[in-house]
Specification:
alpha+beta, Alpha-D-Glucose-1,6-Bisphosphate, Chain A, domain 4
Length: about 160
């Protein structure tokens, strides 16, 4: 399933990018619904690029049908990303800690100026390999990503305003 998710921020692109690459801000993202506290596994800067590995955990509610297929305690994953600081462009991929054969996700983020603030567009592809329900699960995951993106944008604006 292809997806496109847009976020809008009331702050400039450089400030938003700095927040997104700041381990202190990432720790604060644990306040968002359905997401356990992110854990920065690695962060390096080289040649104008920032490479990060961040582990996340799902902390929301799952239906009984989904719990028959997956253990909620094992819904953890690592987001691997590389951000070109000068261009505001990043590539990412999601690597599940468990159930790796069931999910693939990769894409890009592009952060650009927009009026007095900026916008960030995520484009990518998500594939779930679960017989009979793959499409439904993909739509549910993308819906959760959209909800998370909206909450993340609000949190960044609060973070930068304080």
């Amino acid at each position: 399933m292809r997806f496109l998710i847009e976020q809008r921020f009331g702050h400039d692109a450089a400030s938003v990018q700095a927040a997104l690459l700041d381990p202190a801000f990432l720790a604060r993202m644990g306040e968002l619904p359905r997401l356990g506290g992110p854990e920065v596994l690695g962060r390096s800067e080289e040649g104008g690029a920032v490479t990060m590995r961040v582990r996340y955990a799902f902390a929301g509610h799952l239906s009984s049908a989904v719990r028959r297929v997956v253990d909620p305690a094992r819904l953890t994953w690592v987001e691997e990303s590389s951000t070109e600081v000068a261009t505001g462009r990043a590539s990412f991929r999601i690597v599940p800690d468990h159930y790796g054969a069931m999910l693939r996700c990769a894409g890009t983020f592009v952060l650009t100026a927009a009026g007095a603030g900026c916008r960030r567009v995520a484009e990518g592809e998500l594939r779930v390999s679960v017989p009979l329900v793959a499409g439904k699960v993909e739509r549910a995951i993308v819906s959760g990503m959209e909800e998370h993106a909206a909450a993340e944008a609000d949190l960044i604006d609060i973070w930068l305003a304080s």
